[in-house]
Each structure stands twice: as structure tokens, then as C-alpha cells.
Fold this protein.
Amino acid sequence: MRAARAAVSAVGAIQELKSAREKAKSKIHQRRTRNTAIRIKVISMGDAGVGKSCLIKRYCEEKFVQKYIGTIGVDYGVKCVRLGGVDVRVNLWDLAGGNEYFEVRNEFYKDAQGCMLVYDVNNRASFAALDAWIDESAKYGAGSAVVVVAGNKTDVGRRAVSENEGRAWAQANGFLFFEVSAAHGAWVKAMFAAIFQRVLETLPNVTEAVLSGAQQMVAAENAAAKADYDEASADVYEGGKTTSPAPLQSRSRSSALYNR
């Protein structure tokens, strides 16, 4: 009887030891996973007041701040996405567009892997300034970054830069192109998904699972954005008269990722 009890006790001890080992392995794996998370640095560029901060806040917090408060120097946001079983941590650096912050923002161009270059479609001067922003970023260390050109404030309705003109400029420079609305959220997620995918494609040792996950994310966000546009377009005719919905993205933008 004692021998049987001892055998049972030994079996129980072995099982407890195995369980403890499995828990320890799990904790080690979790720590390794955290340590091997992919980190991406994306910066915003563009004139003051074009909506850079609002686009980042819309993406990170899914909200829009009505009252305009200009960025003082540099602001910061973080977005974590899970792709192919790996955490991708995106650090978004919002650089102030005012000339008075020139010395401050120039410290943050270095090592940027992605750039969101923003202009206001209702402000011709902000579009004309894009070349200067590209020159500045290249001079101070962001010359090899993936660039997405974002024509913001499509909801305002006082357009000074046509979609075709914005797209042509982006294509001529080899950049991605989107028209977006921070106020309504139109195509914001799709834009960020596109730049994340392009950045991941430039990084070494990124697994096929992660790249496939990024591709799926892009497809899903493009489909969702197009569905939102189609829904808005369906409301154009109300009560037998023509109304004017917010001028969201054009139907062709579902392929915006491949404009480069």
C-alpha cells in the first residue's frame, strides 16, 4: 500500500514539474515575443494647419478634435497592430509645420522609415510647399523613407487642388497617394495600412506571415473605405432633389496602394 501511494505521489510530482516547466517556457516565449516585436518610425510632414495631428489622432484614437491647437515642436502617438502573429508597434512622430520649429523637427527626421506628407486640398499654398518638405526631410536624414502623400480636408468643399493634380504629383515622385478626411475618417485607416505595408516590405528579416498579414490588412481597410464611400454616394438623392454629401474618396482609390 505504501509503495502504491509513493508511486502515485511520484507521478503527481512529475506532472507538477512538467506543468511548471511548460509555464516557464510560456513566459520565456512571451518575453521573447515582446522583445522581437517589430518597431516602425513614421513621421508627419506638411505646413501648419493642414491636419497632420488630426489624422494621427483619428487613426490612433478614432476621434476628431474640432478645436484647432497647433503642435508645439513635436507630438507623439503609438499604434500597435498584430500581423502574422507578431506585434508591430508603430511610433508616429507628429512634426510641427511652423518655421519657428525648424530646429526642433530636424532632429526627428533621422531613421524615419515612413513619412506622411500632408497638404490641405483647399489650400493651394500647402500643396505648392510639398517639394520643400521633401527636400528638408532628405537633407536631415529621411531621404530613404517610404512616403505617402495625403490630401486632407476633402470634407470642407472649397477645393483648390484637384485629385488628379495631387495624384500626378505623387506618381511623378514615386509616392503613394490618398485623399482623406480627418473629420470624417474617410480613407484614413486605409492610408496608414498602406504605408505600414510598404515599410514592412523594406525591412530585413520580416516573415512572410507578417507581410501576408499586412497585405490582408490593406485589402480589408480598402474594402471598408470603399464601402463607406458607396454608402455616402447612395445618399446623394433625397426627397427628389440632389444633395451634396461630403466629398469623400473617389471609387478608384481602392487601388491607391499601387500608385507608386
About this structure: The two ends are 78 Å apart (CA to CA). The chain has a mean pLDDT of 81. The chain has two domains: 1-35, 38-259.
